Amino acid sequence: MTKQLNDTIHRVTQRVIENSRRSRNDYLDLMDREGDRQVNRGTMSCSNLAHAYAGAEEDQTAIMAARGPNLGIVSAYNDMLSAHQPYYRYPERMKIWAREVGATVQVAGGTPAMCDGVTQGEDGMELSLFSRDTIALSTVVALSHAMYDGVALLGICDKIVPGLLMGALRFGHLPAIFVPSGPMGTGISNKEKQRTRQLYAEGKVGRKELLASEMGSYHSPGTCTFYGTANSNQMMMEMMGLHVPGAAFVPPGVKLRQEMSRAATQRLAAINKDGDDFRPLGRVVDEKAIINAAIGLLATGGSTNHAIHIPAMARAAGIIFDWTDLAELSRAVPLVARVYPNGSGDVNHFHDAGGMGYVIGTLLDEGLAHGDILTVWDGGFEAYSHEPGMDGDTLTWRDPGPSGDTEMLRPASDPFQSDGGMRLVEGNIGRACFKSSAVDRERWTVEAPCRIFEDQPSVNEAFRKGELDRDVVVVVRFQGPRANGMPELHKLTPALGVLQDRGYRVALVTDGRMSGASGKVPAAIHCTPEALGGGPLSRLRDGDVVRVCAETGTLATTADLGTRDPAPEPQPKIGMGREFFAMFRANADGAEQGASSMLAMAEL
What we know:
By secondary structure, the chain is an alpha/beta fold. It has 3 domains: 7-37 and 68-184 and 220-322, 3-Layer(aba) Sandwich (Rossmann fold), CATH 3.40.50.2300; 186-217, no CATH class; 422-570, 3-Layer(bba) Sandwich (Glucose Oxidase, domain 1). It is built from 23 helices and 14 strands. The strands form 3 sheets. Strands 7-8-12-11-10-9-13-14 form an 8-stranded mixed β-sheet. α1 packs antiparallel against α16 (323-332), α7 (128-143) runs parallel beside α8 and α9 (190-201) packs across α21. Its cofactor is [4Fe-4S] cluster. One of its GO terms (biological process) is Entner-Doudoroff pathway through 6-phosphogluconate. InterPro entries: 6-phosphgluc_deHydtase, Dihydro-acid_dehy_C, DiOHA_6PGluconate_deHydtase_CS, ILV_EDD_C, ILV_EDD_N, IlvD/EDD_N. Residues 408-595 form the Dihydroxy-acid/6-phosphogluconate dehydratase C-terminal domain. Its EC number is 4.2.1.12.
């Protein structure tokens, strides 16, 4: 029997509702006004309509006659990003599936879709976070033609899903469904991949061996199979009820994936304003849905990047959610999944063991998620506790049953650990996030003299020279949103991992981000206030003793920072288009608010 909602989850939800009361009401009022004045295409000028109809080919007559809903696709397709390569054929298939239920489909527009895996450690990574705002703006432009009765959002990876959702929420008077494409097949073992990376960091293997290892991991169309930001995105869309149930981790190119995409298209046609089951996006994404997204992140040990993205997505819907809320939820939500890099198996193993259906079912059974949210699918959130399958040619759902691998999935009544492993650490250095679920408990506390750096290459050079062979807190500053766009610092992981394996007490403190694949080294990340502008990080000096402790929630130094001047600020870098993003950096708010220039300027 399902238990009553957990007291802590109830308390945090009520606090978020209260803190958001004014901004959420303002947002819903705006959506109501937008819905009331939604363009009636029958009243638009013939010239306007002719432009919109001209390219519709065989759907032209149906759209002109308004025979059924006209659905817009916003697609992040490109064939360099493996997760998005399968989207190439989606629009033409979705047009066919829409016609089956008397609807039509047009591609409303495309968005950029950069791959953080390609840009890690390169200049392009400084564009990554603000690509999310660019995607949101592109989504708004796509939907501004006012030709659509529903929105299919085709995107999967790191900044793409948050950006699509943020933009679509500006059109929250329309229904919207995310349509994923699934993960690539499992390659070499994650343990072997990690071993080769560390051997390369130590100079024991060359680039040829490293590239062969990496190609064994990233080898075909589909999402990367580790549980990073992209796959955490898919988990959250399930937790918020924005997918067809169970769509997250079905691989591309199989009949089940095709049938789920057909179901998404036809469901979107059914929940438009002119039907009898209207489900606008702005009502689906409410305070409880945001809380569910955070709960899913904690329960599965998901990407640290979502400590930034969840507040930003929430703000786009007029909801205020911060790291205090996340940390308090973490104390109540148990860790029920261990997926690489937190465990040995990847998302394909996770899906085969029961996947999202199992996770949602066990959370609901223990009163650890809101079961009463409005979802895009008929049957409410309980429908998401089932796993999809095929009965001949028919799409079906079934109870996933017990965990198929208790080393990867456990019931919430017997979890891997009692908390969700995303902790807030704070003190005289600032506030930061610490992903404890990826770190052995004996390493949750590190106190050591710090070494200050202002970029990743300098850290790796010091490592190669042996300058970090000691207990050390590595501080990498001027990596925040206003300094250089808050890049991920994933290139630090192998070197710091080697130092830790050598027996040293090592931690990272930074105002930048780590990858969604943050690993075994303790790290206080997203530190806010950032160093640029005189934040406490800018006043640290080499040798200051810094304490990072996930047990007590401490991020502090014994140094008297108030007596020091901030370090000189680095000059903005140009090239790779970074100069075009200066306006984003200049207007960005803090990481805890979502690190968005767009939302900060719009005062949402």
